[in-house]
Amino acid sequence: MKLPVFLHTALQNSWQRKGLLSTLLLPFSLLTRCVIARKRAAYQKHPERVYRTTVPVVVVGNLYVGGTGKTPVVIALVQALRAHGWTPGVVSRGYGAQLGDHARTARRDADPRLFGDEPSLITLLTAAPVAVHPNRPRALRALQRAFPEVDVVISDDGLQHLALGRDIQIVVQDGRGLGNGRVLPAGPLREPPERLREVNVVITNLTPGEAAPAADMSPAQHVVMRLLPQSVEHLQTGRIVAWPAWLAEHGQETIAALAAIGRPERFFTMLRHAGLTLATAQSLPDHDAYTGASPFDRFDAKTLVLITAKDAVKCRRFNDDRLWVVHATAQFSPADWADQVSHALRNVASPAPRD
Question: Which residue in 53, 128, 209, 262 has the most C-beta neighbors within 10 A?
Fold first, then answer.
């Protein structure tokens, strides 16, 4: 259940400092810490409960609740590992999809209603096979049965799913860093900040011109990611235009932007920083299913509407000639971080799987 807007805003603001609201919620955060500690202790005491497979597993997750930019990292990692000779596959929760006891698998043409918008986008852009289920080991086993050629698995989210063994852990954060450093609900963190001591890579997703957050305690490799518009695709016809050419052709027209992602303002800021003047910017809830009436009816008939690639997989049914999809490219510093991940994976010797 989504919180009312005013309560969501109040929490987000309180999570950036240790103010009154955060302090009042602190006793509940202590309970959260206890639950987290007991869960970790249970898996440490019974390592046989952790599912491990014959291929290496990379988990891409976050500590800060909500969207931090994991999907672009997963896509970039799939592409980089393939360039190094790997055959990657992806497992994911399949947020928003109605899943029963069995995991679903696909390679391309993954209906977002059946797989969730992010897995659908990942396989569309990378052609990597995906498997979805809240039980990550179940998804992994289904992936390997359907695609035995996969030799490295990337878990999209799942940092906190300790039942899935992993060889490399990547945390994605944004300019908010660790917020006030407290766990839910007094703070925005799913786990205490010291969890970063155990990860291999911390990727900070920044909007153009945004400063990096204060340094954390992690000994991991630190990477900065910035998303920049690369091309624009006309959703109805599939015509693709490079961003500079599209801006020159349409930049003087009335343009709106709409996004249903974790932090829509990142999308809008990226567009403005890339030279676009937006007449209006509309946000929808993250993972909005676009099942009702078209949200684009609110715009004037002559207004061009820019949407994210994540939203595009659910918007083709509207057959709206005004819709253009912005395809962003991720720029990393240092640029060779994924090369180092590939090198580390070569040295991984995963134990045999359990039945």
Answer: 128
